[in-house]
Amino acid sequence: MAHRIQGTDEEDEFEELGDEQKVAIGKWFLLNAPPGQVLQVAKDVREVLMDGRLYDRAISEAFPEYNVKNMISLEMPDGSGKVLLTKYGQLDSSRFLDPRTASVAIVDHVKQKCTEVRPADDEELPSAYVEGFRFSVDVALMKYVEEAFQGGECSVYCTKGKDLEKSRGEFELTVVISNSSYSPKNFRGGCWQSYGNRCRERDELHSASLEGSITVNAHYFEEGNVQLESSRKFNDTVVLQDGKDAGTLIVNSIEHFESVYLSNLEEQYANLSDRTFKELRRKLPVTRTMFAWDKALQLSLTREITREFSGNRR
After folding, report:
1. Which of 10, 118, 138, 268 has the fewest CB atoms within 10 Å, i.e. is most exposed?
2. How far is CA 5 from CA 23, 26, 143, in A?
3. Residues 155/98, Cβ–Cβ less than 8 Å
4. DSSP H or E stretch at residue 43
5. Do residues 212 and 254 make contact, with C-beta atoms less than 8 angstroms apart?
6. pLDDT of residue 296 exceeding 80
7. Distance, C-alpha 136 to centroid of its chain
8. Separation between Cα atoms, residue 102 and residue 131, nearest integer Å
9. Between β-strands 95-98 and 103-108, what pairing exists: parallel, antiparallel or unpaired?
């Protein structure tokens, strides 16, 4: 690999890139791979680098970051389900907690495979009191994700105050939803990611604050290459009576924000061709005459007929 520099004799010269620069370029392409296509991008990166040693460095550094950023899910070898690779459950570079099964998954990032599962230690799990709330949210969340996301995965982590043993304390649960779709036959891919943090406050009403975000990425590559990335933050406050109703109230709030966001996206892109693209044009062309959009087809046919007659007369 080389980059071009301006020669002194009006000829371009090429300077070979250093190993660090080549690895950085390879990592950039891998980290920015569209949803579901990092393995295909990795094959192209191998061809570009033309060096097995540099390629191994690039994928060993990029894949762990890519897998966690995109919250991919891997089947656990004991058949107990899938583990989500998220920063909220990450114990170290290759070990991830699955709160639902109270187990720790050891993963191979480059192969994107879970190689081993072990029971989680007591210090890696929340107290029985916090687990009651976490379990309630997890049950309601699984039901919602199953109905709303085809093939979606979800998890609920305790990210603060996991050792709390009684009420009137403060702890934080992080709700994660991840769903991806890749269909090369239809020239498309995409992912939906959302998370929310919920803190139980120290008051008699057990108020809970909910803060989170939704991120959507869509990739279309039929006769072109177009990517859409959109995100939205949300927040809410709910009042809880006990752990039993926590799950329903929290998930209902998340469902509301996601439904509103999805409706806004559908409305926005339904009007893309009819309104947005027109607004990108100047209101009046150089001729200072408004274009008659409703007569566009008629004008096109008129030009074609005129061109045809002109050709025949020659």
Report:
1. 10
2. 21, 21, 59
3. yes
4. helix 38-49
5. yes
6. no
7. 25
8. 11
9. antiparallel
Tens digits of residue pLDDT in 242-267: 656 778 888 999 999 999 999 988 88
SS3 label, residue 214 = strand
Task: List the Cα angle 149/116/97 in 5-degree steps.
Answer: 55
Reduced to 3 states (helix: H, G, I; strand: E, B; else coil), residue 77 is coil
Provide the mean pLDDT of the chain: 84
pLDDT value at residue 128: 92
Determine contact, residues 102/135, Cβ cutoff 8 Å.
Answer: no
Rounded to whole angstroms, the Cα distance separating 279 from 46 reads 43
Task: Give yes or no for a contact between 190 and 102, defined as CB atoms under 8 angstroms apart.
Answer: no
Assign 3-class secondary structure to 95-155. EEEECCCCEEEEEECCCCEEEEEEECCHHHCCCHHHHHHHHHHHHHHHHHHHHHCCCCEEE
Summarize pLDDT for 188-209 with one digit per residue, the tens. 899 999 988 765 544 455 677 8
Q: Which residue has the tokens 């709160």?
A: 99
- Tokens found for residue 314: 């020659």
